[in-house]
Amino acid sequence: xxxxxxxxxxxxxxxxxxxxxxxxxxxxxxxxxxxxxxxxxxxxxxxxxxxxxxxxxxxxxxxxxxxxxxxxxxxxxxxxxxxxxxxxxxxxxxxxxxxxxxxxxxxxxxxxxxxxxxxxxxxxxxxxxxxxxxxxxxxxxxxxxxxxxxxxxxxxxxxxxxxxxxxxxxxxxxxxxxxxxxxxxxxxxxxxxxxxxxxxxxxxxxxxxxxxxxxxxxxxxxxxxxxxxxxxxxxxxxxxxxxxxxxxxxxxxxxxxxxxxxxxxxxxxxxxxxxxxxxxxxxxxxxxxxxxxxxxxxxxxxxxxxxxxxxxxxxxxxxxxxxxxxxxxxxxxxxxxxxxxxxxxxxxxxxxxxxxxxxxxxxxxxxxxxxxxxxxxxxxxxxxxxxxxxxxxxxxxxxxxxxxxxxxxxxxxxxxxxxxxxxxxxxxxxxxxxxxxxxxxxxxxxxxxxxxxxxxxxxxxxxxxxxxxxxxxxxxxxxxxxxxxxxxxxxxxxxxxx
Length: 498
Hints:
498 residues; mainly alpha
């Protein structure tokens, strides 16, 4: 079966950027910067981008481009060259992508619902009560107690799946690339329009002062550096099969180093734009409510579905600004969701030789059915618990194992040689230093800290049984089935050493 390819370099860049840019850029990065030294945070963030983000992206682009396979097949081939079965690592990454796709679509569904609400500000004067009590009808106190099915949320999730399915069903050129050529420019234009309007509102620059005012004393705090690296790994879509899959569709003439630099820089640039947008809004909100900004700043779900609707209520022409906000959220979510699903579909196509349309239909059908668990009273709690263990344990573990496998079991200099051979400009030995020493050291530190805190203190107020079953049990189950597939898989004996 002839492997699909991107139609153009621009199409690949926009698809990779679309994968990296997600809801986390909008609601996570601004708060991370604010909490970790404001303007001073950009110093460790820039350092993390240069020593982890770009090198990791070059690594994954090189592996996908060289071996023309998705994650499981790539690690199987790499394992052959050192006599170790590594296919399980690829399947572990695919399982991470599958789980993220299933719960991430719920947030996109909420954003679609709120897009509809935003035309008339249907959330009323108390967005907090509306979101948790009327929209989600959050009545459960346990992630395992899902409660009643919410038809309205299910319809929105169905719409999100339908749009993602259409993109992956239509193929790399006709679906994924075409979708991102529309979605990404539209997202940037909308965010720039919003920034241009909101900066004219009173209090907007007060919010920017809070975001960018540097506290250089925080540079001596290791937690700040850890947060910067954590944000880089969190936002770039590395370590869970996506970039390996996307780069496997590159043509021989592709410029690997340039593509990697552009993808990372555009993603990080968008994060800064999102920070400007969000904190300008919060500054205006604080001014209008005569409150300190510290009392209105928020992160995560609360920012998107409580704080922003509250701010929209206060703005001039909310029937215009509101839809723009939530359309941007929907676009950011969909572009990432499409890439996450493609990582799963691509692996199944490589493993079983299925036609794309068949694989896409199977993956999306199963994903859709399971995601209905999040269209319930307890959907938010389930999402929160699963997301914590996937992002703070499984994903960091996957990134660390990938770096160890590729840079210590194999010769990382071969990665640099391949990248340089297919690039307009060359990268030096810093790539090997970053991939072999700096990134693994930081990942080990963050992962050990997360493991210690989770084992000793648990996560949130969730029942221990739920944490064991839906948290640790989920991570353990993914590892078990990944290794099981590795054990029963037969080698294709097509060695392709890097």
